[in-house]
Design goal:
By secondary structure, the chain is of the alpha/beta class. It has helices spanning 2-10, 24-51, 81-98, 115-125, 172-188, 230-251, and strands spanning 60-65, 102-105, 129-135, 145-151, 192-198, 210-216. 41% of the residues lie in helices and 15% in strands. It binds zinc ion.
Length: 258
């Protein structure tokens, strides 16, 4: 958008060459063609507006299924954490898309994606929320526990060229606000939520409101079971609660630009 504005600023002011000097008959023809062009342009822009929301109205969420490929993540029953994270990302993506979000994912399969690449994808998306999805087994309760982590970087003012490793510093306050929104929506859905701050490779380089969400499904989780097992019921519950939280975020502070 900025590029277009700059280009517009540089464009010379011009008008149709020699139009004023044309004979009336030709001018009449010109007026007719001009009217037809305007009608076509109006119809085309209406169609385009119907097909595709304006870029500014798109609310983009980045889902980062942590680990993958060579990196299995933590022990998570009989399946690696990376698989659970990806399954949650897929579920959450469909819930969000059904609610009109634009969703960008850092991986769609069991592939190795390093933390810098994850941040590159997130930053390119210019998202209003970035969620890095993890899972853990450190919950013996009967209800899912959610640990939300925010980068431990000290808040810093926005600069044009932020250092890559600490780019998130300019977004800490927005990330804290996102964490607060997730906290209340998840607690409202009956889940235990804890908040913490830590160094987060990947998120520390992201230029969006960003949190790591670690889901500890709790005692009923049967991580060895098929998709219809209790494990996946919990995953659906978590995905629905996260989607509800992001709907809230979109309708509130998430729409405010950094
Ligand atoms: Zn993890």
């Amino acid at each position: 958008m900025r590029w277009i504005e700059q280009m517009n600023g540089r464009l010379p002011i011009s008008r149709p060459v020699c139009y004023a000097d044309l004979p009336w008959q030709m001018r009449k023809t010109g007026i007719f063609f001009l009217a037809v062009c305007i009608l076509f342009a109006a119809a085309a822009s209406t169609l385009a507006a119907q097909d595709q929301p304006a870029a500014s109205s798109r609310f983009v969420v980045v889902l980062d299924a942590a680990h993958g490929g060579d990196d299995p993540g933590g022990n998570f029953g009989s399946q690696p954490e990376k698989s659970w994270n990806l399954a949650l990302s897929v579920r959450l993506r469909s819930l969000l898309m059904a609610r009109g979000f634009a969703v960008v994912t850092t991986r769609e399969a069991d592939t190795t994606v390093d933390s810098d690449r994850r941040a590159e994808i997130a930053n390119h998306a210019e998202a209003q929320a970035c969620l890095s999805l993890h899972a853990a087994t450190n919950n013996t309760g009967s209800s899912p526990a959610i640990h939300i982590f925010i980068s431990s970087l000290a808040p810093a003012a926005t600069t044009r060229l932020a250092p890559w490793k600490t780019a998130q510093a300019a977004w800490i306050e927005r990330s804290l606000a996102l964490a607060g929104m997730l906290n209340s929506a998840l607690a409202h859905a009956g889940m235990t939520v804890t908040l913490g701050r830590t160094g987060l490779p990947g998120i520390d380089s992201m230029t969006c409101p960003a949190v790591a969400v670690e889901v500890a499904p709790g005692k009923p989780a049967d991580t060895s079971g098929p998709p219809e097992s209790g494990d996946y019921d919990i995953q659906t519950r978590v995905a629905e609660a996260l989607a509800a939280a992001l709907v809230e975020w979109r309708s509130d502070k998430g729409t405010q630009k950094q």
